[in-house]
Specification:
The complex is a heterodimer of chains A (469) and B (60). Chain A contains 13 helices and 13 strands. By secondary structure, chain A is α/β, with parallel strands linked by helices. In chain A, helix 2 runs antiparallel to helix 3, helix 7 packs antiparallel against helix 13 and helix 9 crosses helix 11. Chain A is globular, with a radius of gyration of 20 Å. The chains are: A alpha/beta (469), B mainly alpha (60).
Chain lengths: 469, 60
């Protein structure tokens, strides 16, 4: 192989694979080796799935040689967040020490769809235990250790899809699958300087994925580029009888050239308030860039307790989803000390307050749709700060996380969003931009992100990744 | 708040250290603050929960 495939986007790798310039077997060997040797540096990997990956790579090679090309993911290696069930004796640990040996005898729908697309599963990737649902407040919240940021080994890679973020950023695999209940795709994407797409709720089947919150969980891709996110989403999206919450709205990726397109962007008033100085500065510069390809209009939202709505739903559903785990006291075996007790407080949430949150969710959804119907996307900082240090607490016991109105509304109302890099801040760590769209308008947010990446080169910058652990 | 905390302490207090119990107390304070924020919003009785119940029937 004359050209290194590391840090090549899926789109480019697909061209090379289809033209038989690069063989799927050679690709798998390259990335499996990086996962084995570099994965531990970032605490990114739970299980390298070498046997399965090589079998899939050999099959891809045979099929492509026979002229049976399945599409842009054919022969492309990937990693899956370790809450996705994988058959064949591969553990699915949910990031939790008590579940290290958990195995399922079936594949999650997403895994099955990626196999049908010809993708090559190379690893199950590290995650915050139970996807962060037990209330973790600092990075040491997984039995695999804190996710290490490839841009700065003293910084966190984000979570709960920690390994899904760092593995792409460090060039260990070209794409990964993560999940987001509130922040778990956008956080690692933003902190690691890559693209992460949170699809609309119901766009991707959750069958076979660990449930944290049935009405908030979404599965989505993390990649080097927004375009790659579209390619991957096309392979995994669609209705699934095994998950009745999946939407029956058909969807296909519209990857047309966006040159010359004019966008309508909205910015929630005060969206950058409370953000780090570098995040604010980079955000303002980003808006100046976006004014070159469209209009940027400030919008005001009504004063509603956005975060309280989504937080209540999250806490109640998580308490129920893990009822046995919590009641049995098994949470005492989790890694993060605060995960040993935080869930107990959720017993204090009264049923009528939960129902109130559900009623307010309707208000939220209608308001979000009213606002978003006027724009291609709302734009905001991807994260309020650069990645925290490994010993830094990032939530308070009382208020939870720092204000995150876009996250509260985006997840509470099931809206799509893509996070892409837009610069650097303190300690050489990436900052990011998010484009959030109307429900089911993944193509709009992806088009906006592609247009952004056509004007900038942040996505072409990669951390120095040289020495194995 | 105290009654809610007493409920939680009654259920789980025997498995928690004093420091952990103090943290749980802060968690209950957070729950109460959140509930206050939700209750501060007036809705009409016609504002239904956004997860409407749909009766289930297996095909056909």
């Amino acid at each position: 192989m004359s050209q290194s495939p590391v840090f090549l986007p899926v789109r480019r790798l697909a061209e090379l694979v289809r033209s038989r310039t690069i063989s799927p077997v050679a690709l798998a060997e390259t990335f499996l080796d990086r996962l084995e040797t570099l994965g531990p540096t970032y605490n990114a990997v739970v299980t390298v799935t070498g046997e399965r990956g090589m079998a899939q790579a050999r099959r891809a090679e045979r099929e492509i040689a026979a002229g049976r090309y399945r599409g842009p993911l054919h022969g492309i290696p990937y990693g899956a967040k370790d809450l996705l069930a994988t058959s064949g004796g591969i553990p699915t640990t949910w990031g939790a020490a008590p579940l290290r040996e958990q195995r399922f005898d079936f594949d999650a729908t997403v895994i099955r769809k990626l196999e049908e697309a010809g993708a090559v599963l190379c690893a199950k990737l590290a995650m915050v235990e139970l996807a962060g649902g037990m209330g973790y407040r600092q990075p040491h919240a997984s039995f695999t250790g804190p996710g290490i940021n490839p841009w700065n080994p003293g910084a966190w890679s984000g979570g709960s899809s920690s390994g899904s973020g760092s593995a792409v950023a460090a060039g260990l695999v070209p794409f990964t699958i993560g999940s987001e209940t509130w922040g778990s795709i956008l956080s690692p994407a933003g902190f690691c300087g890559i693209a992460g797409l949170r699809p609309s709720y119901g766009r991707v089947s959750r069958h076979g994925a660990m449930a944290l919150c049935w009405t908030l969980d979404k599965l989505g891709p993390l990649c080097l580029t927004a375009e790659d996110c579209g390619l991957v989403l096309e392979a995994i999206a669609g209705t699934d009888p095994a998950d009745p919450t999946t939407s029956d709205r058909p969807w296909s990726y519209e990857g047309a050239d966006v040159a010359g397109r004019r966008f309508r962007f909205g910015v929630i008033k005060g969206v950058a308030t409370g953000c780090d100085e570098a995040v604010r500065a980079n955000f303002e510069r980003s808006l100046d860039t976006l004014r070159g390809i469209g209009s940027v209009e400030e919008v005001e939202l009504p004063e509603l307790p956005w975060e309280a709505i989504t937080r209540t739903i999250l806490h109640v559903e998580a308490a129920s989803a893990f009822e046995d785990f919590i009641e049995s006291g098994k949470i005492a075996e989790l890694t993060a000390p605060e995960d040993h007790y935080t869930p107990y407080a959720r017993d204090a949430i009264l049923a009528k307050d939960y129902v109130k949150a559900l009623r307010l969710r309707g208000v939220m959804a209608h308001e979000a749709d009213r606002v978003l119907s006027r724009f291609d996307a709302l734009v905001g900082p991807g994260r309020a700060a650069v990645a925290p240090g490994l010993e830094q607490e990032f939530r308070s016991a009382i208020r939870g996380s720092a204000p995150d109105v876009m996250g509260a509304i985006g997840n509470g109302a099931g809206l799509p969003a893509v996070c892409v890099p837009n610069g650097f801040g303190d300690r050489g760590l990436p900052t990011s931009l998010q484009f959030m769209g109307r429900v089911y308008e993944e193509n709009a947010v992806l088009a906006a992100a592609r247009a952004w990446q056509a004007l900038t080169d942040w996505h072409l910058r990669h951390p120095a990744v040289n020495q194995p652990a | 708040m105290e009654r809610l905390f007493a409920l939680v302490r009654g259920r789980y207090g025997d498995r928690l250290t004093p420091a952990e119990l103090d943290e749980v107390r802060k968690g209950v304070e957070g729950v109460v603050q959140t509930a206050r924020a939700l209750r501060a919003v007036r809705l009409e009785s016609s504002d239904e929960p956004f997860s409407p119940f749909i009766p289930y029937r297996a095909d056909p």
